[in-house]
TrEMBL record:
NCBIfam families: HAD-SF-IIIA, YqeG_hyp_ppase. GO terms for cellular component: cytoplasm. InterPro entries: HAD-like_sf, HAD-SF_hydro_IIIA, HAD_sf, PGPP1/Gep4. PANTHER family: 4-NITROPHENYLPHOSPHATASE-RELATED, PHOSPHATIDYLGLYCEROPHOSPHATASE GEP4, MITOCHONDRIAL. It comes from the Bacteria. One of its GO terms (molecular function) is phosphatidylglycerophosphatase activity. This is HAD superfamily (Subfamily IIIA) phosphatase. The lineage of its organism: Bacteria, Bacillati, Bacillota, Bacilli, Lactobacillales.
Length: 180
């Protein structure tokens, strides 16, 4: 059961994921959660660090796509200033949204990664369809009310994961070839 929630890698922040490392890993598309992964859930405009990361991804010819459980309207409004494509109502932790994204962007699971801040949704969906996952710490400590229950369950699952896999820890950067 814990395998479903085990991330491939753990990195402190989304913007610490080096696009050159992703290229070396054969990644063509980065799927990312929206709230508290790409942008703070209560600040839809993003940051300069996000824009710099997006530019670095583009230089490496890596497509960035938001895959979120949010409604089409909510995501469209949030990503409009960033000009990002998205998949709404992804139904994470089920793999349907990620499978749809793989088909839409014509990539195999090994050519993609999913970046997210939740074990219970992002990592579980990734593992459900064979996409490597990168768990990141939430951008801010507060969550939308809908996420608070998941966070409590996540603490229990993370304790069990760390007990079984003591090597699991957040790192400053993604290191090519080094899985947690």
């Amino acid at each position: 059961m814990l395998a479903r929630f085990t991330p491939t890698w753990m990195v402190r922040a989304t913007y610490d994921i080096a696009p050159k490392t992703l290229t070396a890993l054969g990644v063509k598309v980065v799927f990312t959660d929206l709230d508290n992964t790409l942008i703070a859930w209560n600040n839809p405009y993003g940051t300069e660090a996000l824009r710099e990361w997006m530019t670095a991804l583009a230089r490496e010819q890596i497509q960035l796509v938001v895959v979120s459980n949010n409604s089409h309207k909510r995501i469209k409004k949030a990503v409009a200033p960033l000009g990002l494509p998205f998949i709404s109502r992804a139904l994470k932790p089920l793999p349907f949204g990620l499978k749809r994204a793989l088909r839409q962007y014509h990539v195999q699971p090994e050519e993609a990664v999913m970046v997210g801040d939740q074990l219970m949704t992002d990592v579980a969906a990734s593992n459900g369809c064979g996409v490597r996952s990168i768990l990141v710490k939430p951008i801010i400590d507060s969550d939308a009310w809908t996420t608070k229950l998941n966070r409590q369950l996540e603490k229990i699952v993370m304790r069990a994961l760390k007990h079984r896999h003591p090597e699991l820890k957040f790192r400053k950067e993604l290191i090519n070839g080094q899985h947690n």
